[in-house]
Amino acid sequence: MKREKTRIGQHSIRSISTTVAVVGSGAAALNAAVQLSRFNIPDIAIVTEKTGAGTSANAGSDKQTYYRLNPTSKSSDSILEMAQDLFSGCCMHGDIALVEAALSQRAFFNLVEIGVPFPQNKFGEYIGFQTDHDTKGRGTSAGPKTSILMFEKLLQETQNRNVTFLDQCSVIDLLTIEQENQSQIAGLLAIDKSGLLVIKADFVVYGTGGPGALYYDSVYPKSQLGSLGIALRAGVKAQNLTESQFGIASTQFRWNLSGSYQQVLPCYISTEQDGSDPNEFLSDYFPTLNTLLEAQFLKGYQWPFDVAKLKNFGSSLIDLAVYHETNEKGRKVYLDFRQNPGSEAFSFNALPQLVKEYLLNSNATSETPVQRLKEMNYPAYELYKENGIDLEKQTLEIAVCHQHCNGGLAGSIWWESSVRNFFPIGECNGSHGLYRPGGSSLNSGQVGAVRAAELICFRTKNKEVRSESSSIEQLDDIIEKKLKRLNSLTSREIVVDLHGDREQIQRRMSESMGIVRSSDKIRDALEKNLEMQEMYSRSGVSTIENVIPLLKNEDLLITEQAFLESALLLAQHLKGGRGSYLFGNVKKHISELTENIPDHSLDSQIIEFRFNRSGKAFTELVPVRPIPSPDNWFEKVWRDFREGRIYQS
Q1: What domains can you pick out in the chain, each with its CATH number?
Q2: Which spans in 91-243 are helix H?
């Protein structure tokens, strides 16, 4: 890795030259570095704002799920069946689904080999369970902290391989050049403790995670900000930005309340803001206690909000009821694990048969929800206690929170974006559409890391990286223009309100792009977004320390615009709602909203978003690519593999 000082215009700038820059330090990014190292790629640098600050190192659920092809002896699973299940989630390209299925076991057993403790029986079978949107019991788990364990083991592996870390280093821009009528990555502009840093790289693997700071009601760790905006501004195409996952989560300690947390049947209570007028409100939305209890139990399996699960008092009516209490009535909502639902005496024998059998099989038959939680999944109880919340002694404040972005930057079957040699992986890659099986995002991130590393290895060995002198001059000109803008930020008359503006963006998104949406709210939010962007274009900050927070707000503004522009296009074609959101007047009574029938008219199309070179936003609907039926005659595949044809588009 070459370090030097570069003269650009009137500026002397520190620069680093490397073969691959991996941006981010979550499970996907770390695996990319591991795979690149295994392929003996020279000069790999992990560029990260803070090691361990991402979602995978700070998030989980009752037993966080990893989704892979079922390897057990009683399974009749196949790659094609798994691909079909991923593809049936709608708005997902079939060739991507096939790759995620085909490499799922390779990615899973890589984690096993480096020490992630997925459970096996005494015969060596890695057993699993059925997760949401899953037909084959493909889910497995290492407990509430599955992704945290993945992060820890992958981090150790990168350290064992002496991969270079550029920590406390914030990427503020992508550097691209034009090569043969296509944008190509050339590096990164970053700021570290010593100031501005140019990172020249032949390849960039972008594992920055989802847009964690985009919503006010969010279960993302507060340290997870996301960096979609700078990629969008550089011309990287995005897809499915309308599609996210929302679910009930705790707000004091941000954590998903899925699985066991629902299956043990805690009591839902709402209060006024000052804590007065406590009300067990779910009974207002369900006709009988048993109907409520069955929906609540199923909420454990069916944690993400889904309009298809509103009908007939389904599990997603609970999310809508919580949303109605908090967003429409302005009340606070809590889970109380100390008391059972219903004003009448709680009878275990009177529970719905499905619920009773599950609790009996789990040996969770005690009198209170918290006791049942301890019996069913003690680590799930202990997790909250570790974070200062004892469910035996206090209630847990909750909300319907943004949890995962199914859309994101678009990539090929090798996870390469519309900018050559730039590979978005992990959650910032929008491979999934309306639905995805629980845990498939962890699989997707690991698979994407392998695929990006394989293509980088092929191109490196075949010297497919160009560095003509004209390209170097082009890059210097680009950097000089960006430096002029950065240098002007502390000398402008108008100073932005960084904290207040951040909250405005987040509240706009929670109000306009949550589980209940309307064209008017989306249009109004977009208008306010563009006004704020215009204000930022002529504003600055009072101190150099505030430059990075300002740039983060700009990144969020660009991301917000892309989300809203995509949603406006969808609203022109969609009636009622689909997936994770309803289209309707939010002032309607909740019973009217539940009458919407999911609109399936656009299930086979994907919304793509991009900025052109002049900065104009474009959205369009494109058809999904079907699942391929490749010719797998061995000699033909062997020849294509030897000759590198498999890497050609």
Answers
A1: 246-403 (3.90.700), 491-600 (1.20.58.100)
A2: 94-102, 104-113, 146-160, 228-233
